[in-house]
Amino acid sequence: MGWLADLDRGFLDLCFPRDCAVTQATMDDEPLRHLSPAGIDLLPRILDPRCLSCGHPFEGILEGDRACPHCLDLRPAFGRAVCAFRARGSARRIVHRIKYERCPFLADDLAAAAVEDEVFRRHLAGSVLVPVPLHAARRRDRGYNQAERIAERLASLIPGCRAEALLRKQHETVSQTRLGRQERRKNVAGAFAVAQGRSVDPATRYVVIDDVLTTGATLHACAIALRQAGAELVDAAALCHG
Questions:
Q1: Among the CATH numbers 3.30.70, 2.30.30, 3.40.50, 3.90.320, which is that of 34-57+76-241?
Q2: How many Å is the maximal CA-CA distance in the chain?
Q3: What is the pTM (predicted TM-score) of this model?
Q4: What is the pLDDT of residues 76-115, one digit of tens each?
């Protein structure tokens, strides 16, 4: 890095001007590489009131202690999950590019935009961030694990955080994309375990990190693996919900 990297970056920007991933407008001296301030403003943020279990925003009129339909019957092994954005529109498109179009660099900027949310930032502060692992075959095919990149970027931005790849995926599972709620839970049940040679500290707070929380099944399965290894304080977070 240093001044040589800055020089190279400036040369590349001169030859190949960057466009905002949301607005497609040309970017010049913005703080982030691929998201302009105007683009960040257009991302569909999650605001309170939100579910205290899965983090999904409550919409309409709240009546009594109405259960959240998005984590209904999950009884998550994590204490609380918080998400920064809704997985719709521009945010959904960015996540799709990160996962399927070999654009892991977009995760850096989406994570930076996420920590502008005070609730999200406070939720992660002082914790060990544990990325959801990919199976070795999937990782070789994709070339990276987006959850690891997100966790590392978040840890660099939030004081007192560090990222640790504590979990491994024991066997491959089918894609969750087309599965229903119950099928998702069965698909990932028992799929994760603490990696060989790694251990957890019962006094440490762990937050499992993923790109998207849909039903919470994957984060739940990862939290179970951490608790089975002795972790007592386990929460979860994802950049997007939906």
A1: 3.40.50
A2: 59
A3: 0.88
A4: 999 999 999 999 999 999 999 999 999 999 999 999 999 9
